[in-house]
User: Which sequence fits this backbone?
């Protein structure tokens, strides 16, 4: 359960506060959002005549698209178009990527699919319901190819190539060397090495993607509304793909967004897809992603395998580090990937003073969903490796991990500190932050609890994690991916621009716009605080509008909300804009008040002389002069009261010729400490105590700052203990619903104690750094360290689930004892798969002979099989059928084949077959035995089914449940058919036989 | 429940936040879509359409239900209450809403309408719940932004049980 937050902090509702920045002012955003008056993308009105789109996705991880037949779908009333890869190839170019590599991605699969869930066609129709119905009539034939899912296998020369023109799936390898790592390793007393593996996961905003696109044939321009988050460096990527200049690709972003966490960058391919559909149909086209699509195919953080090794002294001083980081980006490299691999490059030595470091960075492609930004991007992967290593060093030297941390920490007097790889850490006092955290008896209490637990034979461990949290990325960091020569040829990339505009109207009302996209942080409130401070007004006097229109608003490629750029970036630009306006107003007022501009101050809604405060004018009156009497302005002053602040810090230099890069402008610090206990019977990790210390420089609004930290903390816990995108070896995605992908509820989030320290950044005028990502980086490492301490083990895989703990404690899982289910027939070597097995029995009040006849009668079968529309006999005991099936939220039509074999009259038989449809496929077989009883016949059945495609993503729980329901329905219908007067008898076993049939059914996504 | 043929559209009438309204719907139309797209009541959100996230929670005859798991026809003739009903006509927040604001219990606000409606139902029946009971109700909702801390604090505040809860949790 979460802590009751903000102990002892009184909230400010603002009537007058002398300094608004830094005060915990309640959010301006809240009233509308609490009243159902948010304006999220799907709430906005669309133009008359808007069509609705549905995406058809690949059920295969790797296959050639042999044919697409959309004729039946197009014949449906209300269907306007079925857009395919051929259309997309004709009307657009592949998206630009950061590497020169023949890895081409369009907004729909062209000729080949490379991951389950990849968009293959777009059905556009009058309504969403019509589009979804029509999608089931589109016939797509695939020729499957072998898939490769494990990045270590993917980089082997024998692995199937995802992109034919690449030489290897490992499309980039870069080696960096800073200092003299070789000498340091030769001189070291010892080496400590380990491998960490960070999984795939996402933070799944509650609102999915929404796009509304329009095309204007008269000038060939596109207008796209989407809940896109930036970075706007992707805007040129989209415009280029559509073969238009940026001015003909207008992007509008709604005023509210239901969360993003990095994920809404990846709506961009769909923005291009909807734009193409609008062009083809000549109508506006709207697409709203559903949750299953989101989980299967929206975005994920990349999984990373890191080999890390330290050269150390006997005392635990780290002399040098070597890291080999292999990151799996899935099927395509989307702009601006591989960001996570390079965003932390300058900080690769974390919070430690390590002068020598070698880094190898590898980018690997596999048959999985493309990876992209998620909150903390690059940080969680890096800190899991570094912080686990530090804990390991302590274990090997039999020292306290906190001691190792302290001996290696960057000393306070060394700030500003230049890291080995080139980052300029602006400020910090790491040692003091740690002292404060462990002080006040906090660590002593943890140790006492650990001792007690261990004395009682329980598993209890303590973990620590230190994180340097970057804020405001250098737009040139990604170019570190290229060699110095290639960078030279491409032209240097660097810097990051932030923009905000302050406008004052004829009545003196103040409005603000800025280059951030709303995601729920509270930017509106913070910007109003900053501007109100400068102009002597109150936050309620400042109207902030944060919808973006690229055709009208100032923006740069850095615009958007990501990598903590708001506080070090846009907030500064807003202050600059406010000061520019203020200086003008001071000039105007000085003239009218007969004083000098230096003597003018802004306070309490008035503009007045500092020396003689009675010599004053109302703020609105001064502003009005600029509008109503421009002729009276001081000489040389331009009349407008609209000023844009542009902030472009000089510290964000391009990579040096020896590959050193200052990856970000500000560097905050997070220190986490926790105690965990592991339940010996459920193998569950329970976080007993958690303390998180943040130094993010100056805090602009403590209420909002703590909110960001609580949110990131919950996501860190999710990554540590719950969330993972799982694919099987064939690339089937197995986490397609919220029943399979475990987002923690309130019951899973432990209490956390937050501490703060403020070491202002000298590099930004507000002194503020980013703080919203730190706990996504620190919590997985901290919890893993605590679990390692509790169990005294070295290798910890995330998420730390009960199954994994069980394996650590009890060794690898033994196969389950033979049960009836295990007797089910062996599966044919199915290509994909989630396997369902089961067995059961059912009683029917009819003789075996009657039941047997009913089962072999096609007419009767047709009415007995749930969801069956058509059934044709194709052989003595072979049938072809069309069935509609649904599992949970997934529903669709399938073509089924069924054959009966090994028939022993009135006694037993075997049923086999397959289902294929737009939502996936299934194949399997089962046996059925009939035994006469006193009241009729008992049917015993067992089955084994393999399911692939979207249906597989629905997950075991739902599939098992669905199979049981379908089987029960089958027998009930069979029974009812034989005994129309009798109520359906109860089911004796959990599953059905026919499910072989149904199996497919099972697959009835 | 009224029976409507699968192929037909029917006029569905409900009392939405005290006002009689009606619109046409196919039998398969979800109540969440009906509210949002047919009636324009977009305050109710859809986060999963499979009954897990709780974003779409509304009250039917006073009881909280998932509108994504309810067909529009099932609400025929009933009183449906949504987040739009909570604030006063002058826009003034009610006590529960104000407590959410005071405790920073929302960020993006997408999950918030569903959570407000669940607690509107729950607090109506149980005005002074324990923290454990609040957590129990809240565990039927997913929020990705807040980490839930502020939401629990908000409900404790509005139900007047905050002081007790603080005492209990020490
Ligand atoms: S949308 Fe209804 S529970 Fe998620
Ligand atoms: S406030 Fe964003 S999901 Fe709850």
Assistant:
């Amino acid at each position: 359960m979460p802590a009751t937050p903000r102990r002892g902090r009184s909230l400010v509702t603002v009537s007058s506060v002398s300094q608004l920045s830094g005060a915990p002012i309640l959010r301006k955003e809240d009233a509308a959002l609490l009243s159902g008056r948010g304006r999220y993308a799907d709430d906005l009105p669309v133009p008359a005549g808007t069509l609705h789109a549905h995406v058809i996705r690949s059920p295969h991880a790797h296959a050639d698209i042999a044919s697409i037949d959309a004729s039946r779908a197009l014949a449906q009333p209300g269907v306007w178009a079925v857009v395919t890869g051929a259309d997309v190839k004709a009307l657009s170019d592949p998206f630009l990527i950061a590497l020169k590599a023949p890895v081409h991605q369009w907004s729909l699969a062209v000729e080949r699919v490379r991951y389950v869930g990849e968009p293959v066609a777009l059905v556009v129709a009058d309504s969403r319901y019509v589009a979804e119905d029509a999608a089931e009539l589109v016939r797509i034939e695939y020729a499957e190819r072998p898939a490769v899912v494990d990045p270590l296998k993917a980089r082997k020369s024998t692995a199937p190539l995802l992109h034919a023109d690449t030489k290897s799936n490992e499309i980039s390898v870069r080696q960096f060397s800073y200092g003299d790592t070789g000498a340091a390793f030769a001189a070291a007393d010892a080496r400590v090495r380990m491998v960490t593996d960070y999984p795939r996961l996402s933070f799944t905003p509650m609102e999915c993607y929404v796009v509304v696109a329009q095309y204007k044939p008269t000038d060939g321009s596109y207008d796209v509304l989407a809940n896109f988050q930036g970075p706007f460096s992707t805007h040129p990527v989209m415009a280029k793909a559509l073969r238009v200049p940026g001015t003909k690709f207008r992007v509008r972003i709604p005023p509210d967004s239901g969360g993003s966490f990095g994920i809404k960058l990846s709506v961009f391919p769909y923005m291009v897809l909807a734009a193409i559909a609008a062009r083809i149909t000549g109508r506006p086209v709207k697409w709203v992603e559903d949750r299953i699509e989101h989980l299967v195919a929206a975005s994920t953080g990349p999984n990373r395998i890191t080999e890390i090794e330290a050269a150390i002294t006997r005392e635990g001083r780290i002399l040098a580090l070597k890291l080999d980081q292999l990151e799996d980006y899935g099927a395509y490299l989307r702009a601006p990937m591989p960001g996570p691999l390079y965003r932390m490059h300058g900080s690769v030595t974390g919070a430690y003073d390590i002068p020598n470091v070698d880094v190898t960075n590898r980018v690997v492609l596999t048959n999985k969903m493309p990876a992209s930004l998620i909150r903390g991007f690059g940080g969680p992967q890096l800190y899991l490796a570094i912080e686990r290593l530090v804990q390991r060093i302590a274990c090997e030297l039999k020292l306290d991990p906190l001691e190792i941390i302290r001996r290696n920490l960057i000393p306070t007097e060394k700030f500003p500190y230049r890291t080995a790889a080139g980052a300029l850490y602006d400020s910090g006092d790491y040692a003091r932050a740690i002292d404060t955290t462990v002080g006040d008896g906090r660590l002593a209490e943890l140790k006492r609890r650990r001792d007690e637990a261990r004395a009682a034979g329980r598993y209890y461990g303590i973990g620590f994690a230190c994180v340097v949290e970057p804020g405001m990325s250098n737009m040139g960091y990604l170019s570190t991916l290229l060699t110095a020569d290639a960078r030279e040829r491409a032209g240097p990339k660097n810097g990051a621009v932030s923009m905000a505009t302050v406008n004052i109207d004829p009545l003196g009302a103040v409005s603000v716009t800025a280059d951030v996209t709303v995601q729920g942080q509270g930017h509106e409130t913070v910007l109003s605080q900053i501007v109100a401070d400068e102009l002597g007004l109150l936050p309620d006097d400042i109207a902030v509008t944060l919808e973006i229109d690229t055709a009208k608003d100032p923006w740069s490629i850095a615009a958007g909300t990501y990598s903590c750029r708001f506080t070090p970036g846009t907030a500064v630009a807003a202050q600059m804009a406010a000061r520019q306006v203020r200086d003008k107003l001071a000039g105007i007022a000085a003239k009218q008040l007969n004083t000098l501009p230096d003597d003018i101050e802004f306070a309490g809604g008035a503009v007045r002389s500092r020396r003689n405060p009675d010599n004053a004018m109302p703020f609105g009156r001064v502003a009005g002069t600029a509008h109503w009497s421009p002729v009276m302005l001081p000489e040389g002053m331009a009349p407008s009261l609209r000023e844009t602040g542009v902030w472009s810090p000089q510290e964000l230099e391009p990579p040096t010729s020896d590959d050193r890069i200052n990856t970000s402008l500000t560097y905050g610090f997070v220190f986490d400490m926790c105690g965990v206990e592991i339940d010996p019977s459920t193998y569950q990790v329970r976080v007993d105590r958690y303390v998180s210390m943040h130094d993010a420089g100056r805090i602009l609004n403590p209420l909002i700052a703590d909110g960001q930290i609580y949110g990131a903390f919950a996501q860190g816990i999710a990554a540590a203990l719950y969330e993972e995108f799982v694919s099987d070896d064939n690339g089937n995605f197995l986490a397609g619903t919220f029943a399979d992908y475990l987002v923690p509820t309130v019951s899973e989030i432990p209490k956390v104690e937050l501490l703060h320290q403020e070491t202002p950044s000298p590099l930004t005028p507000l002194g503020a750094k980013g703080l919203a990502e730190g706990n996504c980086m620190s919590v997985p490492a901290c919890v893993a360290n605590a679990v390692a301490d509790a169990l005294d083990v070295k290798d910890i895989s995330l998420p730390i689930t009960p199954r994994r703990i069980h394996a650590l404690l009890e060794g690898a899982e033994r196969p389950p004892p033979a049960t009836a289910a295990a007797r089910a027939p062996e599966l044919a070597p199915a290509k994909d798969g989630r396997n369902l097995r089961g067995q059961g029995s059912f009683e029917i009040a009819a003789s075996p002979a009657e039941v047997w006849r009913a089962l072999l009668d096609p007419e009767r079968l047709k009415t007995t099989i749930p969801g069956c529309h058509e059934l044709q006999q194709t052989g003595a005991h072979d049938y072809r059928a069309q069935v509609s099936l649904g599992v949970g939220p997934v529903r669709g039509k399938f073509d089924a084949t069924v054959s009966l074999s090994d028939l022993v009259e009135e006694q037993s038989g075997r049923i086999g077959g397959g289902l294929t449809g737009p939502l996936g496929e299934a194949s399997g077989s089962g046996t059925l035995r009939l035994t006469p009883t006193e009241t009729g016949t008992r049917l015993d059945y067992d089955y084994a089914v393999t399911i692939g495609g979207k249906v597989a993503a629905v997950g075991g729980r739902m599939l098992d449940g669905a199979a049981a329901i379908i089987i029960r329905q089958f027998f009930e219908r069979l029974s009812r058919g034989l005994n129309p007067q009798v109520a359906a008898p109860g089911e004796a076993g959990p599953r059905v036989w026919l499910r072989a049939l149904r199996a497919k059914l099972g697959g009835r996504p | 429940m009224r029976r409507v043929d699968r192929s037909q559209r029917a006029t569905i009438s409900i009392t939405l936040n005290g006002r009689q309204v009606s619109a046409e719907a196919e039998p398969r139309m979800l109540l969440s879509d009906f509210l949002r797209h047919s009636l324009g009541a977009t305050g109710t959100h859809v986060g999963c359409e499979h009954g897990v996230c709780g974003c779409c929670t509304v009250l039917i005859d006073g009881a909280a239900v998932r509108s994504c798991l309810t067909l529009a026809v099932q609400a025929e003739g009933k009183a449906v209450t949504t987040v739009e009903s909570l604030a006063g006509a002058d826009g003034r927040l009610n006590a529960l809403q104000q407590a959410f604001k005071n405790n920073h219990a929302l960020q993006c606000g997408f999950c918030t309408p569903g959570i407000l409606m669940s607690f509107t139902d729950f607090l109506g029946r149980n005005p002074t719940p324990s923290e454990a009971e609040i957590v129990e109700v809240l565990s039927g909702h997913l929020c990705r932004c807040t980490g839930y801390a502020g939401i629990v604090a908000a409900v404790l505040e509005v139900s007047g049980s905050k002081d007790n809860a603080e005492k209990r949790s020490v």
Notes: Residues A 206, 259, 520; B 106-112, 143-146 surround FE2/S2 (inorganic) cluster (ligand 2) (CB under 6 Å). Residues 386 and 850 of chain A are 70 Å apart (CA to CA).
